[in-house]
Structure formats: structure tokens, C-alpha cells
Amino acid sequence: MRTAAGMSPVAEERDDAPLLRAVARGDEDSLAALYDRHAGWLTVRMTRRCAMPDVVDHAVQDTFLALWREAGAYRGGGDVAAFIWGIGVRRLIDAIRRENGARRRMRWRAAEPSVVISAEDQVLVGIEHGRLGQALAELSPELRGAIEATVLDGLTCAEAAVLLGVAEGTVKSRCHRARLALRAALTEPATGPGTQITRRQAWETP
Amino acid sequence: MTSPSPGAAGQVGGSGGHTADDLLASYADGAVDGVLAWSVEAHLTACAQCRSALSAHVDSERLARNRSALLVRAAIGDGGRAHRMLRCCGVPDYLLRLLAATPSLRRSWLLSVIGVLAVVAGEAAAVGYGWIPGGRSAGPAGYPAPAVLAPFLLVAPLLVLAGVAAAFLPMFEPAYWLAVAAPFSGVRLLLVRAVSALTAALVPAVCAAFVLPGPGWLPAALLLPSLALCALALAAATFVDPSAAAVIAGALWALPAALLLATTNVPLAIVQWHSQSACAAVLIASAVVLFVRRDRFQLGWMR
Amino acid sequence: MNEDTAAVRVDCVSRRYGATRALDEVGLTLERGITGLLGPNGAGKTTLLSILATVNEPDAGRVSVFGLDPRDGAERVEIRRRLGYLPQELGYHRHFTVAAFLDYVAILKEITDRHRRAEEVARVLAAIGLERYARKRIRALSGGMRQRLGIAQALLGNPDLLVLDEPTAGLDPEQRLRFRELLSDLPGDPVIVLSTHQADDIAAICPNVIVLLEGQVRFAGSPSGLAAAAGGQVWSADDRDHGAHLSWRGGDGRWRHVGDRPPADAELVAPTVEDGYLMLSHAAGVR
Fold it and tell me: Domain locations in chain C?
């Protein structure tokens, strides 16, 4: 991988909103500028959820195209990046569905998730050192994936099912099990490492 | 997969120290997982500086390629509401774009067709319903005199024919030689366009027929002549020059129709059973000829 | 040239329009790389190129493109899959934008997936230098830009056979240079045949040249071979020489003459491709 050359200089947070407004007015240069600022992290974040680079590329293009059409839906609450991710994750799901051969496209609402994600993100930023972080780290990857999709990405169980490549019922049961495990971990008094190993075995998906 | 210890994550939100960049690089590589990745992502949502720093670790060629594709798609556009609606119904995107190049599916053409129909049907209705004194008495069996409906019956199938002609005549396709030299099946292109143009022209014609005074089956009686006319034009185009074929088909309708309307007293002879059967026969014969000689549309070779 | 490995073979092809013989038993072979078709207007270049592009059929003779016969329906479609064609009179849907037109041609070339199409259109726009005009309507473009658009559409899909009818017409010298660079950089080393009536295009771009005069092939070889056809018959003088076939004043103020019998005291000069072409034209009786 080569490092980027000539990427835009560091963008101030408050510059994103006017850029979005310019995109809503149909300014193509602003769309390109928005792409330059946000495509990098969007690509990486999507790649972490879907390993197929072609699908991610298409989803990134679709995301900015959707922004091109729906930039006016941004109401100014929450980060622009969160707004973009809300659109992006659903485009990714669309792209995965297309890849799997589904024909019908569901309609997504772009504006809603930004509030949800921001709130979760605020919590998550400080969790690594806390007990919640430790509890999450001890979940098995499948359970953690289900939590990530439904809580961090704000998807419904149906959408999360497409992203994770499992049945909707499986997602529901994994979320349920994960929540139980987290609740148990957070209400237990702090213990030594030995007990944690036992707990991990209990929580692993069969 | 290496997973840096939770302690390193605390520096994600810092002012960009050495460790933070390492973490971003690992994250860009997909080497960061679990709760740490969540923290990174949560932080990136809020921090433009780290987003910028992360971009430096992403494959710039890939980003550039997507950027140009994005700008091209933004330039092409998505075709408007009708396009989107049809796409939701499952029509493939590329067929819609092919249809967008057809002159008889453009708004200007459709508006002209509706305009002509409105004038002709309006005049017939006005006279038939007695809104304006036309000095025409009712014909036998309570139907309006043939002359009242004559202009409409003459014109409506011709309008449908014109729409289909615009879909396949080379003179309406500026990039005709490109279309011929291209692998996309000429027959398929022709069918898609002809059927769409046919539908787009028939719908207003049938609707206009509902407005008119006359038997209730008048709208349905328009279908066979219109279809037969279009099929005849297409079949003839496999023998002669397409423009000539369209003109011949049009003349073959206009002349007998005018003759019948002028000479008989039987109202609406043109849409009575014998005419309808004749149209059906022409339609079937033309369809057979078209099927047998469909290769001519693939060839596009000059005579 | 080895007959068996030639990518494109034309055997004894004839075509007439009414009383005019556009092509008279033309035979030639084309290899990978650039071949120039040189000839005056009416020599049959457009007819020959349209036959190669499978949009026209010869009255007699056989054509073989990559071993495929255009007379067979399925093989003809296969040839078209590997073909990029710029006709002499290319019409555009005037209300289309540049990007929309290229998108349309890409669909005709069977690129049905819209992401792949966008990438291909972007690639071709970048190659031809028209990225900034993607949203412009074609009717707002100048003649030179429309010509470049025509070349761009021929490049869609990375064709193995590029048939270009007068691609340099309407291009200014700088654009001509870019066009030459573009042709040399094409991936996949396609067979390229382009027609022109300007000898300096041949000299600059084409390692192979075929001269077509009045429907017949008069020369097939390299540009230096064509120049050599006028060897010893080109001279330079201060004044006009009436014994020469052709005389004209060069940029340096001296007269250049091409003729059968240079005067004894003539200063012979090295012939150029254009001189060779003029000699051939004169020999064929073409003015």
C-alpha cells in the first residue's frame, strides 16, 4: 500500500457542515472535497465489516452518491462523520445484498441513526479501561460482532443479519446472550484472572 | 492478528503522537480488532485530524479510482423520478439508460403526442356531444356519424406508429453506426425500444378514446390496428429501407381508412369485426416475418 | 508478413456502389500495432474501414479478424466484442452530456454493471483528457473536443481491434501529439488501423502504412519504404522547375520538386513520406 500524496490538509470540524450544504446545492467540487476528507476512514471502517474490496468500493461510491442526492437531510445535529456512516453502513448492506443476488432494495432513512451512534460513541470512547471494556473484550467474537452491528452501527436485526452473514434469529439470540453476559459481568464483583477464564468459556458460542 | 494492549488506546485521542499513528496504521491494515477497534472508530467519528492521518495509510490509487468513478456517476445522474421508480420495480439500470436515448420516450415527444390527441379527440368529443353545433346528425343505431370520429381513428394509430418508428429508424439514432458495430444485440435493443415506445404512445391514445362518444369497446378496438401497423413497419424494414418501411406502413393505414370512412355509411367500419380480423392477420403475418428475418436488425449492413 | 499469424486478413475484397468501384480486389494483412491507411478522399478508405468494423459487407472476397469470419452471425458478435470503432460521421445525441454518452456506448459494449461502467468511463475520460467536461452537454463542445470524445468511446472496453476513421481531423497540433502518445500507451497491444490523408500523421505515428488509391492497394510497408519510392527524384532549387510533376515552396523559401527526371544540376534531397506518396499518386494518375 502506498501512502497518499496530495491529500487535503487537516480539515476543521466546522468546515464539514458548510461543505455538506454546498453539496446539497449541487456543487461538484464540494462533493470531491467531501470525498477527499471522508473516503479514507469510510473505506477502512467498511472493510472491517466486509472483506470483499469490490463490494466496499461500490458501497463507498454509493454512499457519496447518496450524499449527493440527500445532503439536505442533514439537520446539523451530531457529527457529519456519523451522518455519513449512517448512510454508508446501509449502502454497504445494500451492496452485500446485491452481491448475494437479492433484487429488491429496501429504503433507508439517512437522518435517524446519527443521534443513536453519537450517543453510543460517546460511551465507547472511554470504555477501554473500564469494566465494561473488559467485559466486552471477554465476549466471544461472534457475540461481540452482534453487539457491534446492533449497538455501534445502529442496525436493525434484519440489517445486521445481512452484514454478519447469518440468519436474523441467530443475530437476535447472540445479542440476547451478549447482553446477559455483559450484565452478569458488570454486576459481579471484580475478581482475579482465574475466574475470568472460566467466564469466557461459559460465554463462547457453541 | 496483533492486538495492542488497551493501554495504547488511550492515546488515540491525543494530539497525534508516535503511538497514535502506529495504531492508525494497524487499524488501516485491519490488524486492530475488538473493543480497541470500536474505540478507534468512535474517536474517528469525532476527530477530523485523526481521520486525515488515517487517510494517509489507505491505498491512494484505490481512493483515486473510486473518486473518478464517483464523479462520473454524479455527472451521469440517476435519471429522475421515473427512472428511480422503474428501478425499484426491478427494471435493470442499463435498459433504462438505453431507453433514455429514444426520442419517442422523451418528455417533449410525449407532450406533442398528447397535444395532438387532445386536439383531435377534443374536437370529436365537442361535436359528438353536441357542445358545438356541427350540423352533423347521428348515424344509425345511435352511434355518432363516422365523420365525427374519423380524424381520431385515422390519427391515433399513426401516432403510435410514429412513436415506434422513432425507436428504430436510423435517422433518430445519431450514434447509429456505433450501435450497429456494438455487440449488444440489435434485436434486443429494437424490441426494448419498440415495446416501450408502443406502450408510451398507446396509453394516451386509449385514454383519449375513453373520452370520445361511441361504443364502449372503442378504446380496445384501437389496440389491434396500432399493433398491426407497428409490426408491419418493422417487418417491412427487414426488406426495404427503414424510413421507407415506416412511410409505407403509414400509407397502408391512412389510405384504406380514409376510403372506408368516405364510402361506407356503416359507422365505425374501420373498427368493426372485419377490419379487426384483417389487422389481426396482418399482425400475425408481420410477427412471423419479423421473427424469421430478425437477423437483419443484427446486421445493419448497408445494401 | 506471415499469413498465419496475421491478426486481420483481407483477401481480394471488392465493393461497389452503383457504377463506382469503391474497393477493387483489395488484399492486406494487419498486425498488432499501428497501421496507417493513407489515401485521398474517395479512395475507399472509409469503405474498407467500415468492412473491418463489420458494419458493411463486401461484394466479393473474404475478411478474417482474429480468425473470426464476419459473415457468421455469432462470430460477428464476437468480433464486435473486441472492437472499438470511430466512424467518419459520428453523430451524438446532442442533449446527452459527455459522461452520459460514454455510459450509453459502454452499455452497447455490454458493460452492464453500473460500477464497472463508471470506472471504465472514468478511465477513458482520463486517457483522453476530458475529465473536466464530464458534465458538459455535447452540443456545447467544440469540434476538436467532440473528436476526442469520439476517440474516447472507441477506447471503452479495451478493444483488441481499433478502427479509427480520420481520428486526427479537427485536432490541433498539441492534441495530435497527445493522441499519438495515447495510441502508443494503450494496454494490451491492440491492432490499430487509422485512416488519414495527411502524410505527416503517418510519418509520426504509424510504423506501418498502406496506401490506397482508387480502391486499390498501391503500397504496404513502412514509412521509410514509402519515402524510398521517391528516392532520387526529389530535388530542391531556388526557382520553380516546370519539368517536375509537382513543385511547391518550402518553409525555408526554396522550391521543392518531385519528378521523374531531375535536371542534371539539381540538388537532390532525401525524400519524405509525403514525397513518396505524391510519387505514387502521380504514377496512379490521381491528382
Answer: 1-82+159-222, 91-155, 227-283
Rounded to whole angstroms, the Cα distance separating C171 from B282 reads 52
Residue B22 binned pLDDT confidence (cut-offs 50, 70, 90): confident
**Chain B contacts of A124, Cβ < 8 Å?**
38-39, 42
> Subunits touching B (CB < 8 Å, at least 3 pairs)?
A, C
A53 is a domain residue: yes
pLDDT tens, position by position, B270-295? 667 787 888 899 999 999 998 888 77
Return phi, psi of residue C269, to 5°: -125, 160
The Cα–Cα gap between C1 and A183 comes to: 81
User: Cell triple for residue A106?
Assistant: 429496501
User: What are the residues whose beta carbons fall under 8 Å from the beta carbon of A46, sequence distance 6 or more?
Assistant: A56, A59, A60, A88, A89, A92
Phi/psi at A71 (nearest 5 deg)?
A: -60, -25
With contacts defined as CB-CB under 8 Å, which chain A residues touch C135? Answer: 28
Please indicate whether, in this complex, the C-beta atoms of C153 and B178 are within 8 angstroms of each other. Answer: yes
Residue C197's pLDDT band (boundaries 50, 70, 90)? confident
H/E/C letters for each residue in chain B?
CCCCCHHHHCCCCCCCCHHHHHHHHHHHHCCCCHHHHHHHHHHHHHCHHHHHHHHCCCCHHHHHHHHHHHHHHHHHCCCHHHHHHHHHCCCCHHHHHHHHCCHHHCHHHHHHHHHHHHHHHHHHHHHHCCCCCCCCCCCHHHCCCHHHHHHHHHHHHHHHHHHHHHHHCHHHCCCHHHHHCCCCCHHHHHHHHHHHHHHHHHHHHHHHHHHCCCCCCHHHHHHHHHHHHHHHHHHHHCCCCHHHHHHHHHHHHHHHHHHHHHHCCCCCHHHCHHHHHHHHHHHHHHHHHHHHCCHHHHHCCCC
Number of compact structural domains in chain A: 2
Q: Does A99 touch chain C (CB under 8 A)?
A: no
- Give the global pTM: 0.82
On chain C, the residues whose CB falls within 8 A of the CB of A57 are 115
Sheet arrangement for strand C60-65: C20-30, C8-17, C60-65
CA distance A58 to chain B (A): 8
What topology is assigned to C1-82+159-222 in CATH?
A: Rossmann fold (3.40.50)
Integer Cα distance of B43 and B60 in angstroms: 23
State pLDDT tens for residues C27-76: 999 999 999 999 988 888 999 999 999 988 899 999 999 999 998 888 99
Please give the single-letter amino acid code of residue B107. Answer: R
Note whether A68 contacts B: Cβ–Cβ < 8 A.
Answer: yes
- For chain A, positions 142-201, list CB contacts with chain B under 8 A: 144, 148, 152
Lowest mean pLDDT among A23-32, A83-92, C145-154, C260-269: C260-269
Smallest Cα distance from C50 to chain A, Å: 38
Nearest CA in chain C to B175: C91
Residues A139 and A90 in one domain: no
- Asked if the structure places residue A42 within a domain, the reply is yes
Residue of chain A minimizing CA distance to B46:
A79
Q: What is the pLDDT of residue B266?
A: 53
Among A57, A87, A113, the domain-final residue is A113
Q: In what order do the strands lie in the sheet with C267-268?
A: C246-249, C255-258, C234-237, C267-268
Of A32, A45, A104, the CB nearest to B41: A45
- Are the C-beta atoms of residues C48 and C23 closer than 8 Å to each other? yes
Predicted complex ipTM: 0.82
Report yes or no: C115 at the A interface, CB cutoff 8 Å.
yes
Query: Domain locations in chain B?
Result: 6-76, 91-299
Lowest mean pLDDT among A116-125, B128-137, C224-233: A116-125
